[in-house]
Amino acid sequence: MATTKISTITADGVDIFYRHAGPSLPTTPTILLLHGFPSSSHMFRNLIPLLAARGYRVIAPDLPGFGFTRVPRERSYTYTFASLATTVEAFVDTLGLQRLAVYIFDYGAPAGLRLALRRPDLVAALVTQNGNAYAEGLGKVFWAPLQRYWASGSTADREALRAALTLPATRAQYVDGHPNPAQLPPEAWTLDQALLDAGSGASGAEAQLDLFYDYRTNVEMYPAFQRYLRESGVPVLAVWGRNDEIFVPAGAEAFARDVPAERLVVRWLDAGHFALETNEEEVAAEMGAFLEAMKVFG
User: Residue limits of the AB hydrolase-1 domain (predicted)?
Assistant: First the structure.
């Protein structure tokens, strides 16, 4: 099994912590893994060595405001998804990466798709694991309080969302929809919560609430994301936890509207939102088969 290493690199004025494994030759096929809320690259701890064992270079950064990435206070970072995409782009360029398969999950989806819009030459393939680009993919119950905040912009609606930053809410993202929650390792949500509570440099609860509000701009960009999917020719693997209550199965099914069958693969997992906690081997196998079948790296 390949060894996962940790490193930190400064890009866009941010000290970006990342996990990586596999060969680092310029010709090595490379996969960029982008995590979601409220997690970090830790969510990929089981997937990284499985992909590296298949010969891929695998890189998973912690986004600003998450994990062990540090945003210096003097950086005055603006917590928007445009900013996250800018930082990811700077990270990729600092590492000298030129052609990538990009794994997008949750918050990683709008960050990765914004990157793809800016740098279509960079993205060779997309793997979306409950990474949404369609309005019908938004679970109604989960998103209702955020949509109220988007509509009002009020302090009251912002304050109501602080409950989403607590341990019960973090745990729920892991256990809800999972067929056997007893299988799930509690350190996953415990670490997520500890890092949320600790903040990250100049971030903290206010940064998370800012991102909640800014998520509305991702929904506004869905037509642009969909146009990219239609026109870019990028192959897409949608590997989806069918029991996810945050990004529901309709979001995976919708990719067929914009990605023709010859470059789209949809696979269902018996899992909820954080499918990699129990289905990492299945996901790795699907990714390997997809990247080979689509001849993503030649």
Answer: 29-279
